[in-house]
Amino acid sequence: MAGNKKPWSGRFQKPTAKNVEKFTASISFDQRLYKYDIEGSIAHVTMLAGQGIITPAEAGKIIKALESILKDMNQGKILFDLSDEDIHMAIERELIRRTGETGGKLHTARSRNDQIVLDVRLFLRREVDDIFLLLHKLQEQLVRSAKNEISTIMPGYTHMQKAQPVLLAHYLLAFWDMFARDAERLQNCKDRFNVLPLGAAALAGTTLPIDRRQTAKKLKFPVISQNSMDTVADRDFIAEFIFAAALIMMHLSRFCEDLVLWSTDEFGFVEISDAYTTGSSIMPQKKNPDVAELIRGKCGRVYGDLLAIMTILKGLPMTYNRDLQEDKEPLFDAVDTVKDCLSIFTEMIGQTKFHSAKMYQAAYGGFSTATDVAEYLVKKGVPFRKSHEIVGKIVAYCLRNKKNLDNLSLADYQKFYNGFRADIQENIKLEKAVNSRNHIGGTATAAVLKRIREIEKQSVQK
Ligand code: ARG
Fold first, then answer.
1. Which of 36, 57, 242, 290 allows an S-S link to 119, with CB 3.0 to 4.6 Å?
2. For residue 338, what is the DSSP state?
């Protein structure tokens, strides 16, 4: 579609400089919006005819041509040219080439300013639905893994120091909750952007008798934007979406950080499948968790997208400014990155082997049941602050004498507090420690199984 005459060339005496054409064009990236642009145009033209602004015959001709352009674009038959500037003009030019003067009526009562926001909203609506599915698949995988690992005990950490034993299933379901909030955030964001912008035109609306309700209905928008100036100036929804995507990436990244650490020889908690790791070009023994590392790295990239959109918007005068064209690359990048990462992560975690014996052994060391000893004393009526101090002294004694909480004799325990009884040995077993935390949100097997049942019930209801 070469050719240099711009639809806006009326008031210009000289053609655009070649490098300016290249500098200002967005066609190289906004071409991926073509389906939505055509969908929007068909709805618009239908409304124009419904309102008697153009004739039904003209609308019919335009719609038929738009449908054939869509088919050709789907088949890659139409090559885009820099002189097209953007996807709206590329499609309009092709329409006029196919329908002559009639095609020139499509842009009645519309501006590229409301058109581009429409395209992006339609695009994002579709992509967000895809991301919902990917999140859902990941959550399903987490539940599957949690069920498989229901008896695996691992050390839980705070400050990267062994803290208290937990079920691996409890760890996995912690991420289930995070991804559930991510999905909710996306739903809120979608509710806010699922609003018809068309009709705002350049910024002030139009003198022509449009019917925005008709267009909204055709494009399945439940809500119509209420202020034409806000409509063309607003990109909050893009910032909000990228923020939601950045949080998904942050959650994946934290999970990946654990997997990287857990797959070291030093930890040995997991083995990521060969299919999701790579080798070293020099060290033959290496099996590197590159996929997990790349997801962690790509989180930074999506943060970059967020910073870009926030910075682009800051300080823009009302209403539309060409700066806003810069919203698309960060948006597309965030969409593509989060989708790629979610799907590869789900596969990877599904094929990761958890070494339960190694985890158990690690949970066993490091005085991870010291809090249980303190709470044992609380049950005997000792104030917690005091029991904390008593157990602190027991731990210090063990460290000095190279002992552990479970190889101290009852007499040893009683040296620190005479209310200890023989059942203390039972109370510091890992299984007992885990299963005693049997309340809403606790790590006991019964509590985790209950949570799994609730989750499964929820997803059946959805
Ligand atoms: N390519 C432009 C964008 O992405 C489309 C809107 C252009 N509008 C204009 N008046 N130049 O924002």
1. 36
2. H
DSSP β-bridge partners for residue 164: 156
User: Taking the CB of residue 226, how many other CB atoms lie within 10 A of it?
Assistant: 8
Question: Cα separation of 331 and 308, whole Å?
Answer: 10
Q: What is the mean pLDDT of each run of 10 residues along the chain (462 residues)?
A: 64 87 96 98 98 98 98 96 94 97 98 98 98 98 98 97 97 98 98 98 98 98 98 98 98 98 97 89 85 98 98 98 98 98 98 98 92 95 96 97 93 96 94 97 98 92 70
Q: How far is the CA of 249 from the centre of ligand 1 (A)?
A: 30
For residue 165, the surrounding DSSP H or E stretch is: strand 161-167
Distance of alpha carbon 235 from alpha carbon 113, whole angstroms: 12
Please tell me the predicted confidence (pLDDT) of residue 104: 97
Q: Is 319 in the pocket of ligand 1 (CB under 6 A)?
A: no
Q: Which residue out of 280, 409, 439, 459 is catalytically annotated?
A: 280
CA–CA separation, 103 vs 79, rounded Å? 20
- Determine the residue of 8, 322, 329, 331 to mutate for testing ligand 1's pocket, defined as the one with the most ligand atoms within 8 A of the Cβ atom: 322
Q: Is 280 among the catalytic positions?
A: yes
| pLDDT at residue 2 in the model | 43
Contact (Cβ atoms closer than 8 angstroms) between residue 118 and residue 212: no
Structural domains present in the chain:
9-108 (1.10.275.10), 115-200+227-361 (1.20.200.10), 365-461 (1.10.40.30)
How confident is the model at residue 279, as a pLDDT? 82
Residue with CA closest to ligand 1 atom 7: 112
* Rounded Cα distance, 27 and 221, in Å: 26
CA of 189 to the centre of ligand 1 (A): 23
